[in-house]
Please model this.
Amino acid sequence: MRSLLGLIVLLFAAAAAALSTTGNRLLAILDNVDDKALYSQFFGDLKARGFDVDYETPRTDGLKLSHLGERIYDHIIFFPTKVKGLGPNLTPSLLLDFVKAGGNILVAMSSTMSASTSVTNMLSELEISLPPERTGTVVDHFNYDTVSAAEAHDVLVLDAPVSTRPGLKNLFEMPDAVIAMPRVAGHVLGQSQLLTPVLRAPATAYSYNPKEQPSSVEADELFAAGSQLALVSTVQVRNSARVTVLGSAEMLQDSWMDGVKVARLGGAKVKPENREFAKRLTGWTFQEIGVLRVNSVEHRLQGQNETNPGIYRVKTDVAYTISLSEHSWDKWVPFAVPEEDSLQLEFSMLSPFHRLDLASTLVTETATIFSKNFTLPDQHGIFNFKVNYKRPFLTYIEDKQTVSVRHMAHDEWPRSYVISGAWPWLSGIATTVVGFVGFSALWMYSKPTGKVAKKA
Model:
């Protein structure tokens, strides 16, 4: 009986470990519930990773995202729909409230259907702009699939994303892989620092209204072209909730997920890695990867055992350590800072007095411990040990420990310095005492002047 109970507990723990760090409740919004058959492999992969998927349409009665202030779902996927408005339960404000409450959203678009007004307005609040007609086809006459789009050139065959910035931990990087994106709807990103493009269009691509003929489109009438067009983008808001925009919902369908082969202009047929890319994209969006956790923070006087004291003295040597872990699919692993990046500690009042690189000093099975020893400044006041680490594709870390730093007491100075250094203060006290006594004596013993008689 005990062994059976232990097995059940072990299986439950294994199942729980495979879930997202924010939950497993997933809502899929489709134009028709039967359309889920087109994405059977995609949904099968999500279920295999532990997600509990509910399929609904915008017309579903009683559809709610929250109840009594609590989220009913942890994640939402929007597929293309023919409905322009998603109803009173999926308004832009409710979707933004869902994100503010920690929910994650994946928006999959298509050039064959207009994006709904709710999704368009929500993305606009996040500084993601769709074409004015809420539809747009991205074509590329040099990077298209010569097998399935020999004439329309609307099936893009692109290299998988690569790291675009030194020191950036790109969780979508797949070297030597290609992905196929049929009927892409492009978008343009604003200036927000929370936006990060995953995949941009090639320099030869452009977006136009599919109601017009590509040959009749003027250059100044294009919505965007080249690297202005983002095909896959991410937003991580300040509470680390995530929103992802995927320009091609068709790339998630079974016909493009496995088995199909594509060929570039003048190239051989290759198998696109759409399934692996979809796994990484949903894994990041639903917080299975790229999630950082602070396990513990300690600071102490060097050589002392008391941790996290509330007060220090100026010019003392202190030691600071922080333990970080990163969630990778189904387990917590040690977090490794990229080579060209650094994790920094700030010891600050109104502005930093010290900004120091933390070094990895110990790696355990599930965490990395970063440490730094330094000397406190010769300034008393209220200070903060602060670690503020914010990078694309990783959840934000902002840990602050507040301490007081006092000045040195009189008896803490060296004896030889006390005798000479105290003379100014003792002289001031003596001068004040002598001055007060002298003034008092003069005031008490001075005879008042006599009155002058008035002349008659």
In short: The CA atoms of residues 324 and 436 lie 63 Å apart. DSSP finds eight helices and 28 strands in the chain. Helices lie at 2-17, 40-48, 92-100, 117-125, 254-257, 274-285, 415-421, 423-445.
